[in-house]
Design brief:
Layout (H helix, E strand, L loop, with lengths): L1 H6 L3 H8 L1 H14 L6 H55 L1
Helix pairs in contact: 2-4, 3-4
C-alpha cells in the first residue's frame, strides 16, 4: 500500500502492472497442486491480492454504473431532440 501511495497509483494497478499478482497466484497453485501446506506468507500475500482484486472489481462496477447513467442520459437527450425535430417537421409540413 505504501509503495502504491508513494507512486500515486492504486494498489491493484500496481499489482497488475508489475505482474506480482500472477507470480503470487502461480506460487499458490504450485503449493496446492503438490498437496503441500501453503506457506503462511503466501497465504497472507494471497489475502492481500484478493483484497486488492475485490477493490478493483468494486471500482470497475462503480465505473460501469456511472457509464450506464451517462449513456442513459445521452439517450434521453437524443430522444428529446428527435421528438423536437419530428414535431418541427410535422408543423412545417402542416402549414
Amino acid at each position: 500500500d505504501a509503495i502504491a501511495v508513494a507512486l500515486g497509483v492504486k494498489l491493484g494497478d500496481l499489482l497488475i502492472s508489475t505482474g506480482w499478482l500472477e507470480i503470487e497466484h502461480a506460487a499458490m497453485i504450485e503449493q496446492i497442486k503438490d498437496d503441500e501446506q501453503p506457506d503462511p506468507d503466501v497465504l497472507e500475500d494471497a489475502m492481500a491480492v484478493l483484497s486488492a482484486a475485490k477493490e478493483m472489481v468494486a471500482e470497475t462496477a462503480a465505473l460501469l454504473v456511472r457509464a450506464e447513467r451517462h449513456v442513459v442520459s445521452l439517450m434521453a437527450v437524443q430522444a428529446r431532440q428527435n421528438n423536437a425535430r419530428d414535431t418541427s417537421e410535422a408543423t412545417a409540413s402542416g402549414r
